[in-house]
């Protein structure tokens, strides 16, 4: 079965058509040193490139394959994908918050043109920076989070204070961007989307939650040739 792959900074993101009707089956794996999946229909990368064969190199998508108007040559293909596909579905101005290793905020006009955005550290990257740049703060992993739940606003333990502080920093960045992009439909995607969604909804911000938006965009590209 033909597959799609987006190589991210900390995970590889895969998709294939659902065996029972429309839609995509998506899953995520740790990065590898080599790309050996010869059944790939298409792939793209924003993270480190693995070793791969010339036949796979020919299937790699470039920014030019994404029909986002006004996309500058330096724009990451992941941002182009999510911005274009969110706009394609809304047909109005959109702001896409991609909460992954980095938090990227991408704005697309009502006419489907790239209008700029913001990039900051994601939740896990903030936690690693705290542990690596201080003498007494510990290293934390994803087990410190309960994604679907709101934690106390003022935790008492150091671990909880770090985890909730970083999560709230990302959510606050999205909320502020949504205010400044008034009139744009907010979309939320990325591996940490579920972590920040409860904080946004508590502020009466209701984004369209699409965890696999980039893969859905890849599947919809004319050059890929899948039918949806």
At a glance:
The protein has about 230 residues and is α/β, with parallel strands linked by helices. It is built from six helices and nine strands, in the order E-E-E-E-H-H-E-E-E-H-H-E-H-E-H. The protein has helices at about 55, 75-90, 125-135, 160-180, 195-200, 215-220; strands at about 5, 10-15, 25-30, 40-45, 95-100, 100-110, 115-120, 185-190, 210.
Mean pLDDT: 92
Strand fraction: 15-25%
How would a textbook summarize the main sheet?
5 strands, mixed
CATH architect. name of the largest domain: 2-Layer Sandwich
CATH superfamily of the largest domain: ATPase, nucleotide binding domain
Q: How would you describe the shape?
A: globular
Order of helices and strands: EEEEHHEEEHHEHEH
Tally of DSSP β-strands? 9
Computed structural class:
alpha/beta
Total of domains: 2
CATH T-level fold name of the largest domain: Nucleotidyltransferase, domain 5
Separate helix tally:
6
CA radius of gyration: 18 Å
Q: Report the span from N to C terminus.
A: 16 Å
Q: Can you tell me the residue ranges where pLDDT is under 50 for at least 5 consecutive residues? A: none
CATH class of the largest domain, named Alpha Beta
